[in-house]
Amino acid sequence: MIITIDGPAAAGKGTLGTALAERYRLAYFDTGMVYRAVGLEMILEGLDVHNEEKAAALAAKLTFVKMIKLSRQKDFRSDVGSRAASIVSAHPQVRAALLKMQQDFALNPTFADGCPAEGVVYDGRDTGTVVCPQAEIKLFVTAGPEVRAKRRYDEFRQKGIETEYEKVLADMIARDKRDSERTAAPLKPAEDAVIFDTSELNAAEVMAKAVALIEEKKSKNGF
Ligand code: DC
Predict the structure, then answer these.
(1) Is 163 exposed, middle or buried (0-12, 13-18, 19+ CB in 10 A)?
(2) pLDDT above 80 (res 12)
(3) Which atom of ligand 1 is nearest to the CA of 77?
(4) pTM to 2 decimals?
(5) Residue 32 contacts residue 11 (beta carbons within 8 Å)
(6) Which tens digit of pLDDT belongs to each residue from 198-220?
(7) Whose CA is nearest to atom 18 of ligand 1?
(8) Which residue has the least CA distance to atom 4 on ligand 1?
């Protein structure tokens, strides 16, 4: 089974994706990591994140091992890393260079320990439209910008990253604008995606809704 979860930043994709992967024993691919890896590598190499050719060259050489190594760096999930990821992800050549790596994962999905899995939960804003349009289940998870900024702010605080709510909200709005206005993979739900607005739902309620939907589709379509 392949499940895709698309939607804007901090809408609850990761929480839902990891919970669904655990429940259905599927591998989990957080596709934002590929863009974060390229963005961070650009910064570490002293390159301008707006340079599409240079970013695409790094993207073409990205491997899972390198991505995991970069993910341990402090700026991988900071606002600096998020901004870099958002900018490099708007370059069409970068997206093209990273597509095969993401699609190939479904051919041979593995858990973090390397054991084979029988399917994948893809988390990322174009996974239902571009990376895996053949997915059996497509969810589009969203919430208002204030709710998402508050969630991201709490996450930063928990990780000991110093920041202010107003700054997180401003960054979130700027990122939403960039991500929805860009021409390369603008943020939009797949036509056959089911939309969940999580503004007023907690994680358990979102999970219950998703499981009900999956069970219904499974019994109807027999996969
Ligand atoms: O989900 P995230 O916050 O880790 O994503 C980081 C950036 O990568 C985000 O600004 C948008 C981009 N991204 C994308 O363009 N396509 C994806 N499938 C996943 C993330």
Answers:
(1) middle
(2) yes
(3) 4
(4) 0.91
(5) no
(6) 999 999 999 999 999 999 999 99
(7) 124
(8) 32
In whole angstroms, give the CA distance from residue 141 to residue 14.
Answer: 10
- Look at residue 184 and tell me whether its pLDDT is greater than 90: no
Question: What residues contact 181, with CB distance under 8 A and at least 6 apart?
Answer: none
Strand order in the sheet with 27-30: 27-30, 120-123, 2-6, 137-142, 194-197
First to last CA, the chain: 7
| Tally of CA atoms within 13 A in the half-sphere of 39 that contains its CB | 24
Closest CA to 121 of 21, 24, 16: 21
Q: Is the CB of 129 under 6 A from ligand 1?
A: no
Residue 69 CA to residue 190 CA, distance in Å, equals: 32
Find the 33 Cα to ligand 1 centroid distance in Å: 7
Q: 149 or 184: whose pLDDT is higher?
A: 149
Alpha-carbon gap, residue 166 to 146, rounded angstroms: 10
| CA pair distance 124, 31, nearest whole angstrom | 5
- In this prediction, residue 181 carries a pLDDT of 83
Q: How far is the CA of 166 from the centre of ligand 1 (A)?
A: 21
Q: How far is CA 124 from CA 35, 47, 78, 220, 222, in A?
A: 10, 25, 18, 26, 26
Spacing, Cα 88 to ligand 1 middle (Å): 10
